[in-house]
Please model this.
Amino acid sequence: MSCAASVTLGAYILGAVGGEERRAIEEHLETCQTCKKDLLNLAPLPGLLSRVSVEDVTEPRPVPAVPRPRPRRRLRTWARRLALGFASLVMFAAGGLAGGLVTAGPGPTEPRPAHIVWTGADQAGRLQGSAALTPHAWGTEIGLRLRQARLRAECTMVVNARGGSRDVAGSWVITSYPAGEITVATSTRLRDIASLEIYTKAGQRLLRLTGDTRSPSITATHS
Ligand SMILES: [Zn+2]
Model:
């Protein structure tokens, strides 16, 4: 089984869609098991993207206008979409903070999950960050805001789970812009996340974000 809406998930997981489209995808995800499953499978892919070469994703291949089930070529198509998403991520800071995080109140059909916010800063004062964590049926959405000075780096977000396992939630480039926003995702449930860490490609830890996961507003959404 495949769902036509699943073609947007790659851009969604990379935070490359905004506004109305983003809201529409999230509403769709609440009801479509196929897309939920797809999203769960895709959650580690932003981190893997750094290992995809340009040749892997620029090979000429027609993209069908109407997606059909293509199990054999699925991953390559995804890689292309992810690469497109990645291209917009490099410019993520250009959008500034105008886009806003997904913090909408209850929608027309069912309550939207609330988010909690964790913050952190590096010791050198070059980088400050806050992460809005939103629980979903498929895992956790992480809306990251960064403020930084004189820093340009390729970064990876690592999700540390309470059980000790680690999951790469996304990779992107911090540009020379003073502030930026990015959305990444992990299949780790919010209650199981102990901390988030941002590393440079060279393995230097830039930031650690942590906080309370027992937000009253989260438990209140269960009805
Ligand atoms: Zn769907």
Observations:
- The mean pLDDT is 71.
- Residues 3, 5-6, 28, 32, 34-35 surround zinc ion (CB under 6 Å).
- The chain has two domains: 4-93, 116-219.
